[in-house]
Fold this sequence. Notes:
By secondary structure, the chain is mostly helical. The protein has helices spanning 2-20, 25-31, 39-47, 52-56, 58-70, 76-98, 100-141. The longest helix has 42 residues, at 100-141.
Amino acid sequence: MGVLRVGGGLVLISAGWKALNEATHDDAENTSIEPPKSRKKLLSMAFYPITLPLTMGPGMIAVSTAIGTGMIGHGTANLVGCLLATLATLLTVYVCYRYCDRVSQAVGATGADALSRVFAFILLCIGISILWQGFTELWLAMPKA
Length: 145
């Protein structure tokens, strides 16, 4: 489990760092003049949207495993709490995806950039936490020389 936590932490750190250092909305508009995409290209992009790796990829697997294995042997109350937290997370992801267009319109481009950076920082911190937990577990498992 320690190796999975270290790997998952590194994936989350990488995703958070990349999102934290993305160009702002204004910079992206000024520097990228792309030709229109073909229908085939748009359909291939629709299959795997940009948000899917963060909610359904290796980072999600690592977080779920790290939390789930941390609950082993802690009783029924902790298991129920973990399941309720999972349901709350699923509901939050659904609401965020369902209403992201309205939130973007409400806060504007600058507000969306600021929110994106705040959430990227939180993702980076979660990645560091999982990495540290895995590193500690591996360190303590090393044989004493």
